[in-house]
Write a structure and sequence with these properties.
There is one protein chain. It is built from 18 helices and 9 strands. The longest helix is centred in the last third of the chain and has 19 residues. It is globular. A 9-stranded mixed β-sheet has the order 1-9-8-7-6-5-2-3-4. It starts with a strand and ends in a 10-residue tail after the last helix. The protein is α/β, with parallel strands linked by helices and 332 residues long.
């Protein structure tokens, strides 16, 4: 049975007299730093020299230090940096300034699980992983709510690592929605699978392919865009609110019948086998090795794939249509 902790279950006094350094001030970094500050914790932000985020962090009332100085000053160092730069920052700025008694905290398990970072044995290593992009973490907190988080412990030297992680999770608002127990392995592998097979890779390929089928059959690109991309948010919102059953209750019976009868034609047993293959590549470390090598070699393949997708027809017509819809909510 899953173990969930809420605000009422968490004593955050263990962090109240400590200093927390949040490394990075991007999507997750700004949300963690501001939420922690407003929850009453002592927070500093660590940034590289010349970071464009320094002004924004200082204007928000945060103390900004170099990554090295932030590590020296802090009892808990939170990595809110992209996976691709974490190991470099750790080697150059964090590792030389680590001392026994400090805690390293990660918002995603990739660099620890795949051993891109190998902390010394005298350091507590934990994770609080919000299940939402950083801007959502911040916006929901400002409304007095929170997003669910995952908590895991990789190294517990002090005997208090779990309590420290939960206190941090409460500070960013996770205890308002629930903090779920997991492991670095489970969080990393399920997160990568979700991104690749469903949330990003699966959905974008489904949308692009549906658009192509309609346009190639002679339908207007604008109609195709509305049907396969624009309306997707409306359906996902219903699923988010009440599950698949609530979505099916909310649409027409024609749509519901098409869901049951034609959905399995599109997402058939071959798709499930392909998903299992993706999961196996994650579990074996093949994906991690490929992605690490891609970064080491300059991201040439990655940048080409990004450029190729930016010129897809659905992106062109989508931009034109969205420019005529000023009421759309910003995603930032």
């Amino acid at each position: 049975m899953a173990i969930l902790s809420y605000d009422k279950d968490i004593d955050d006094s263990i962090l109240r007299d400590k200093t927390i350094a949040v490394l990075g001030y991007g999507s997750q970094g700004h949300a963690h730093a501001l939420n922690l500050k407003e929850s009453g914790f002592n927070v500093v932000v660590g940034l590289y020299e010349g970071s464009r985020s320094k002004q924004a962090a200082e204007e928000a009332g945060l103390t900004v230090l170099s990554n090295a100085d932030a590590t020296k000053a802090a009892d808990l160092i939170s990595f809110c940096l992209p996976d691709t730069v974490q190991s470099k920052v750790y080697r150059e700025d964090v590792q030389p300034n680590l001392q026994s008694g400090k805690t390293l905290l990660f918002a995603h398990g990739f660099t620890i699980f795949y051993e891109q970072i190998a902390p010394p044995p005298e350091i507590d290593v934990v994770m609080i992983a919000p299940k939402a992009p950083g801007h959502r973490v911040r916006a929901v907190y400002e409304r007095g709510l929170g997003v669910p988080c995952l908590v895991a412990v990789h190294q517990d030297v002090s005997g208090a690592a779990h309590d420290v992680a939960l206190a941090y999770g409460k500070g960013i608002g996770g205890g308002r929605a629930g903090i779920l127990e997991t492991t670095f392995k489970e969080e990393t592998e399920t997160d990568l699978f979700g991104e690749q097979a469903v949330l990003c890779g699966g959905v974008t390929e489904l949308v692009k392919t549906g658009f192509e089928v309609l346009v190639e059959a002679g339908y207007e690109p604008e109609s195709a865009y509305f049907e396969v991309l624009h309306e997707l948010k409306l359906i996902v919102d219903l699923m988010y609110q009440g599950g698949l059953g609530y979505m099916r209750y909310s649409v027409s019976e024609t749509a519901e019948y098409g869901d049951y009868s034609r959905g399995p034609v599109v997402i058939d047993s071959n798709v499930k086998k392909n998903m299992e293959k993706v999961l196996q590549q994650i579990q074996s470390g093949e994906f991690a090795r490929e992605w690490i090598a891609e970064n080491d070699e300059g991201q040439h393949k990655f940048k080409q794939m990004r450029a190729d997708n930016e010129i897809h027809g659905i992106e062109k017509v989508g931009k034109e249509l969205r420019d005529m819809m000023p009421w759309l909510e910003s995603t930032t």
